[in-house]
Amino acid sequence: MTRAKALSALHILPLAAVAACGDPQLQCGPGTHAQGSFCLPDGPEPGSTTTIEDTTFDPTGGGPGGWTTADPDPTTGSSVSDGPTTNSSDSSVSTTEGGCVPLECGVDVACGSVGDGCGGQLECGPCEEGTIDGIRPVRMIADRSRGRLYVTVRSDSPMHPNELVVIDPATASIVDSVFVGSDPSTMALSDDHTTLWISLEGSLQIRRVDLTTASPTPGAQHGLPPGDFDPAVAGPMVVLPGTTDSVAVSLHNYNYSPSFEGVAVLDDGVPRATKTSGHTGASRLTGGPSGWLFGYNNLHTGFGFYAIKVEAGGPTQTEHEGLVSGFYTDIVYADGRVYATSGDVVDVSNPAAPAKSGVFPFAGAVLPRLDQGRVLMLTPPDFDNNVSVLRDLDPVTFTQKQEVPLAALTADYIDDFVAPDDATLAIIAGEGFGEPPVVQIFANPFAG
């Protein structure tokens, strides 16, 4: 499998958890309605889709590495079908009498049981799944150049507290770790994959980590500029394109509501002269073309979208309304667009004038794979589905092509949906109410 540039995302919190925490009722913009913790567009339900069954990980048995076909789900009865199959060993593309070109295992679908698009059925083998045990993860980022996952670990973790751990997704195991500081949290990776920046919430700092050495090597720690009221911690961060030492930081103080304290840019730890104002602004932050960032206010009902120009003296921003909506919505930039976990898509090909491009009829963590002509979306369980659903979405027509129910992923919320390589997907998933989150790794069924 080839390896390309990493894209990562996101934080999804379901409505049940919101209500439990006493947060405000979900409010949606015009033309949308609330479903779970997301704002979805009004209109008819999406049409029928093809489903692919899932598998689970048994460390004590099964095939090589313990990967086994899942037992039927007690609710849905789903398992790998024993019905008629299309021979996946035949690499030739055949055309049916009606002119339909069927999908192929290893080309269009990597694993699972799926309709071939022409009335037949493909059996492409089990989709592997695994969990990293023993750590309490905070955030995760993928390094596609090395095929690795980097995870920050909580200070109260039974193993690797206050460390950065390196995970090999092929074996679902920790292969390296290093102490980085007090309460490590969010991360940002330079576009040349040589430098990782980590937020240290316990010391109100950020720290540079060199990835060019045999093991990740922590460097200097840098204090953050103060917020509007008190010292702030680094929330979402972005390493500016073409650099390794210039970092944009969304500042937060979690003792206040809303917590947002402005966006600052630091060059090798030195803040630029000005930052954006706090309270209302880019509480979520993502990258953009050279000289630009984009943000979204997901903390109160302003729901503004921000085009942030990065200038020598510091960042400046303009607010644009009606483009994205919803509490807890997050955003990710890819190739001239910003994709939101609410399903909204914003055209930022002209960064100074963002415009609505379209909306998917679903919500969930998003992972744009535009090199493959798709956007992956992972929807956590909600009132309509008791399992997570992985969706293959078309970024041109804003429709769903296929979906995969993942019965093993039963968490209430999903963080940091990433792809360390074409064949593998990973998330931080949690069940809330005091249960620690876990890193889950699973095969990408659309990796053909």
UniProtKB/TrEMBL annotation:
Matches recorded under PROSITE patterns: PROKAR_LIPOPROTEIN (PS51257)
Record InterPro entries: Quino_amine_DH_bsu, WD40/YVTN_repeat-like_dom_sf
Comp. bias (Low complexity): 49-59, 67-77, 85-96
Residue ranges that the Swiss-Prot or TrEMBL entry lists as coiled coil: none
Positions of the UniProt region annotated as Disordered: 37-97
Lineage: superkingdom: Bacteria
Keywords, sorted A to Z: Signal
Signal peptide: 1-19
Name this protein carries in UniProt: Lipoprotein
